[in-house]
Amino acid sequence: MEGPSIVIATEELKPFEKQKILSSNRENFIGMRYIGSRSWGKHLLLTFSKINLRIHFLMFGSYRIDNPRENRIPKLELRFKQGIVYFYSCAIKEIPDGFEEDYDWTIDTMSEEFSKPRAKKVMLSKPKSKVCDLLMDQTIFAGVGNIIKNEVLYLQKLHPDTRIEILTPKEISDLIKVTIKYCHQFYEWKKMNVLKRNWKIFRKKKCPVCLGPIIKRPTGKLQRISHFCLKCQPLNYV
DNA sequence: TCCAATGTTTCGCC
DNA sequence: GGGCGAAACATTGG
Length: 238
Fold this sequence. Notes:
The chain is of the alpha+beta class. The chain is built from five helices and ten strands. It has helices at 3-12, 116-124, 131-136, 146-155, 169-191, and strands spanning 23-24, 34-40, 43-48, 52-56, 62-65, 76-80, 83-88, 91-95, 215-219, 224-228. A four-stranded antiparallel β-sheet has the order 1-6-7-5, with no helix packed on it. A four-stranded antiparallel β-sheet has the order 2-3-4-8, with helices on one face. It has a two-stranded antiparallel sheet with strand order 9-10. A hairpin with a 2-residue loop joins strand 2 (34-40) and strand 3 (43-48). Helix 2 (116-124) packs across helix 5. The two termini are 34 Å apart. The mean pLDDT is 92. The structure holds a DNA duplex.
């Protein structure tokens, strides 16, 4: 689950704010109140009256409200007066009061505080790194996942293996700008249930522009799968 | 039916 | 101590 989806989760949990937990599969939550949530990158940060949680959905995690998954045991289940929230296959960690101070909000791609100059500075300090790795770097672009990476590189006509050192400062600024814009676009599309139909390259077979084949292979240090069109995203150097 | 994959952390080795 | 790769974890849509 990528950053924009976590923002949507915080919104879907809004109706339960200030509500008391009537029952839970975790005894200690019973009787507590859910205070609210916020997101940082791919972290869903939940505040309760006596505890704070960080939920990370990793690759397979999900949450449901009111309609549980069949034959699945939730990692956490919270029943309120007007609904039940279920969290599946996620990493749940308790975090201390005042955790907000531990998070750098200028790194969170969905935050208004995101600092493009900071991202640029960090990228320029890693000239040998490849764009595919830096876009996925959660200490630069918290919340960007593999879908956003692929779509942004396609929009910018950048080959995933492009090294930072061959980009002009303007190209780096544009890459950052488009990444942040796409994160918000992803959020809008997901809310409207039209996200998948708007993918241009991710899990596609043909390039929507030149109709050429889309290459699908692991790239960079991270070796995460990249989808790209060699004709539209050429690698212009060795 | 099989298997890659919207991801991160930890561990051991050099 | 840093960097790296492997492994662990865990699920399901295509």
